Amino acid sequence: MTAYAVAHMRHVTPGPWIEEYLEKIDATLEPFGGRFVVHGGEFEVVENSWPGHLIVIEFPDRQHVRAWYKSPAYQAILGLRTENSESDVIFVTGVGHPHKATDVLE
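Above: the chain sequence. Below: its structure as tokens.
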């Protein structure tokens, strides 16, 4: 089942460290089938507030997203982000299709 790495980034400190992270992350994703689905961009807040940026990276399954995060290539650049931003990161599994809202009740 498709899985996603989802990050809510806030308080990013701009500088060469973030540029380096952005320049290197794509190469870390490729071996694990990862691809950006959402990467910041314009958004419209319709309820409450949303401080920061949303990043969603899609992977073939939860095993691939975990392997990417733990990979030496990603671990080598992780500090560039964590030391220069405040963010929450989660891994979440997608739903099969078709999916109805009531399926979570089963």
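Strands lie at 3-10, 35-39, 53-59, 86-93.
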